[in-house]
Amino acid sequence: xxDKSFFSIRGRSFFFSLLIAMLVLVIIVLGxxxxxDYNNTKQMFEKNSRHLKAQTEQDILITIKxxxxxxxxxxxxxxxxxxxxxxxxxxxxxxxxxxxxxxxxTGIKKELGDQFDVYIxxxxxxxxxxxxxxxxxxxxxxxxxxFAYLTRIRNxxxxxxxxxxxxxxxxxxxxxxxxxxxxxxxxxxxLGFAKSTFQSELSVxxxxxxxxxxxSSNPYIERIRIFNTMGKIADNTSEVVDDPTKVILEKVxxxxxxxxxxxxxxxxxxxxxxxxxxKEQYGSDASRIVEITYNDxxxxxxxxxxxxxxxxxxxxxxxxxxxxxxLLSWYLLKPISKIVKDINRISEGDLNWKISPTNVxxxxxxxxxINTMVTSLRDSIKEVKEGEIxxxxxxxxxxxxxxxxxxxxGKYIFWNKASEQIFNLPAVEVIGRKDPELFSPEMxxxxxxxxxxxxxNQVSISNKKIVDKYRGQRIIHMxxxxxxxxxxxxxxILGIGEDVTEVTLSTKIDLLFSITRRDVLDQLSNIVNYLExxxxxxxxxxxxTFFDKTLESIESIRNQMAFVRSLQDLGITSPTWQSVxxxxxxxxxxxxxxxxxxxxxxxxIELYADPLFPRVFYNLVANSIQHGDHQLTxxxxxxxxxxxxxxxxYEDNGKGIPFDEKEKIFEFGFGTGTGFGLFLxxxxxxxxxxxxxxxxxxxxxxxxxxxxxxxxxxxxS
Length: 717
Prior knowledge:
Elements: H1 14-31, H2 36-76, H3 79-95, H4 105-112, E1 116-121, E2 127-130, H5 144-154, E3 160-166, E4 174-181, E5 188-193, H6 198-203, H7 208-216, E6 221-227, H8 243-255, E7 259-263, E8 268-275, E9 288-295, H9 297-307, H10 311-347, H11 361-396, E10 401-406, E11 412-415, H12 417-423, H13 427-430, H14 441-457, E12 460-468, E13 472-484, E14 490-499, H15 501-535, H16 540-570, E15 576-579, H17 580-590, E16 597-601, E17 605-609, H18 613-627, E18 634-642, E19 645-652, H19 677-686, E20 691-694, E21 703-708, E22 713-715
Parallel strand pairs: 16-18
Antiparallel strand pairs: 1-2, 1-5, 3-4, 4-5, 6-9, 7-8, 8-9, 10-11, 10-14, 12-13, 13-14, 15-17, 17-22, 18-19, 19-21, 20-21
């Protein structure tokens, strides 16, 4: 007899121990074979439940579609009445000279009847005029598919009826709508008919009672709610819908297909049945989403009742299996527990700890593998740390600002030395803090815009202006990049910045000096020409004419030099508010005097423009004089409003610009002169978002329209 007991695993292979465990598992499986009947019963219950649910949902689908067909017939019966009403509105639109503000909407409503309301929708999808005050200013762009429908109508011809739907604002009345585009395709005329008997007439074919009757035949249904495509309860739009349901409804409406949501914690499931009732000829989407809440716990209760019959057999088998499993586990887990204990110590950071031997043959290979892995891991961590230190030090010494912040909390986690110098913020004050704690609200808004742009386009590149209390205004070239993890989840925002103030200033100065040098050389060439021609004259009067022209060119050179000197004194990097009248008059003085009638026909308006703004008018006047030919006698500058924008109109009565050159004249190098006069104009205006285009008629004069966006102009009181 040996000292080794039967159950001892010392010196035995792990295979033998595993074999014993498998035998135990077989015994347990055989004991649980009696549960096969339970599984078969469960499958039968589930099959019947699925069939009943499918039948219920099909009945609901058919009921709603049949009801919708009835509604459609009722809708169609009102189309002729709506068509006649819109003809009245269209006639009034034409009578008012196609000016909706001059239309007597109240008179039209009185003529059609108090149950009618008139709406006029502009190109932006906004109700601009209406007899129904609650919906004045309603913006249909918030409903993209409907805005597209209105745009299609506006660009079409004819009469477009819609369905009876609930109004967007106000008391939620049912209204029949119809639409008709204006002949000039600027507006959509809309007529709403709120018949007082709509509710009672439509209630005759309501589907709610039929659906409730269908639901009563299914014992698993707890509740049914019906929603429209606006996410509101169809038969009670005033009832508040909870936020989780709103999220699900938005997804169902977007995908236009059914969705099943299970709630295992309370044994329920919710089926969202999408019923597509959208018709191409209508703008409104009458589709419905039926929310059916099933109580699956009832089915589970039936399972539990059946399992009680098999419980006695299962308990006996389970007790036997547990006793055997506990006994075997105690022996089998002894070496494993020892290894786990050592691994836990290693996982806590003690990478110098070794796995203790278990004296089990198969585990010996595992022990050696773990020890080798830990050694490799220790060396790899050391290399990673050294590499991280090297990379961080390299980034720290870069002449570019490099910073990073976490997306989940918006806190900065890296801020190198160049960032400290450019933004004048030490790293100790930045790390661990958010943008609102560091910057002004205006700067925070700009940073949020950059981050959003980077998320959408994978990168954001821009020039940002900041104010340094020691160095004044600076221009920072920014690159913002989103950083994603392996699961494509946004984790960090990386920023790289470079101070390009001096480069920008140098570029503008070079440009200013280059064009001024060109203009001065042109004037000097004129002076030489005048003097040479004066020498050929014999009379004093003829010579004096050329001397006068020479003096005009000299005066033009003096004015241009004074303009350059003033820009050097003021600085040319930042846009400023500038008077249009004053700038235009100064630009005229930079050109040689002439007999041309030049006038400014504008109010006292200031533009937020680049300091080189006077060069815009100077080049325009110079081009008119140079290319206007003998027919040029007048130059005018005027303004007009276009929506929220302002248009400066510069025009002359010269020979004009050919149609095929209206865009080419703004290209660099085009023309008979230096080739960058009008190119320069577009660049100068573009610094502050202002654009320019030529819209004149060839042979009748040049006409330049300068479009100034909202916020870039103001009227001086």
